[in-house]
Amino acid sequence: MSDEVDDEARLAALRTYQVLDQPRPPVLDELTRLAATMFDTPMAAVSLVDRDRQWFAGNVGLADKETPLDVSFCATLVPSRKPLIVPDATRHPRFSAYRNVLEAPNIRFYAGAPLIDEDGYVLGAMCVIDEEPRDVADRQIDALTTFAGQASQHLAAIRSRLRMAELGDHLARAAQREDDLVATITHELRTPVASIQGYLELLSENDDLEPYRRLVEPIHRNGQRLVAMVDHILAGTRPADVPLPAPIGPVDLNTVVAAALTSCRALAALRAEPIDVRPGPPVPVRADLARLAHAVEQLLRNAMLFTPADRPIIVRITGTPQPTVEIVDRGVGIPEDELPYVFDRFYRGRHAREQAVPGVGLGLTIARSTLAAHLGSLEVTGDRNGTTARVTLPGAV
Predict the structure, then answer these.
(1) How far apart are CA 388 and CA 327, in angstroms?
(2) Cα–Cα distance between 154 and 245 in angstroms, integer?
(3) Is residue 55 a contact partner of residue 89, using CB atoms and an 8 Å limit?
(4) Which candidate, 234, 193, 173, places its Cα nearest to that of 30?
(5) pTM score
(6) What residues contact residue 96 under an 8 Å CB cut-off, 6+ apart?
(7) pLDDT in tens, 311-352
(8) What element of type H or E holds 55?
(9) How many other CB atoms sit within 10 Å of the CB of residue 214?
(10) What crossing angle do the helices spanning 289-305 and 253-263 adopt, rounded to 10°?
(11) What is the spatial distance between Cα 177 and Cα 165, in angstroms, rounded to a whole number?
């Protein structure tokens, strides 16, 4: 391994983030889940490269919380400082002999981008991993680099908040308490569910249990639904004394919308009328990519849930006069007397109640609070001809 991996100054910088051997920060888990969804891979991680191991500060799909450096793809990015794409690890002269290629998790495809902090130290990598060989386009590499930049900014914010909390800052302590609570709930829920999901996957691969396979899939699906529902409720019930998370770094608004659309693809696949997406030229905004994409996802889900499958939904992205995302549907609309209440927590209109539309009435609450944190706004208008949701943001500074 390169001397740069063991560089004492880099390792000292890594320890200032106080993330190693701690519960995973929820924001980094959110980012890895979004990356795995957007790249359609079963595994993704924010990997921090320590002296003799890599620690997964964000993780989806990987069973271990750390691995030794002798099986670390991410460690090779520390000296190179460049993205690494491995289409098929079994054909790579270096990685083909790695234990995690020859055995579980049977890595074939790997794509990683370096995590470079504000002082220029390479802390590790943001990576996506698959069990099948594959290729990536240049725009996907650019997107992965954006994800890595977001992870670095999140780590910087975590370190800053910890330092402020140590100095007795009330808001920083409140934010830290919420992070600790979310991390605890996430750990206590995700750990047993992940174990259940892992055993279900083993059962599904057992040919002797083929007659029972139809029973395994709905258990697996509902486990994922349970975790997603808890995440949704946590996001929509933020304590009043906790400050909203600030925007993290520059991203293209088109990337935000693409990530949101990817998260909705299962619902979109049920539609006879495809969603009409009208992207614009690059529109830079300062944002927390995972949270802003989640906010747009809520608006897209509402549009699909309340619009018959054969009616149009249009998504427009523009940069002038301000960065804007507009989602226009020709669905059931919102009655005038319900419009004043649509942002209230747990509010569900008559149509949602009568037609048993899925949801708990937090989507618009989450979207508006997220937009407020980004110094933007959300406007929802509707009548019997449909609904328009308009997101407006300040441009990147």
Answers:
(1) 6
(2) 10
(3) no
(4) 234
(5) 0.78
(6) 89, 90
(7) 999 999 999 899 999 999 999 888 888 888 888 877 787 777
(8) strand 53-60
(9) 8
(10) 50
(11) 10
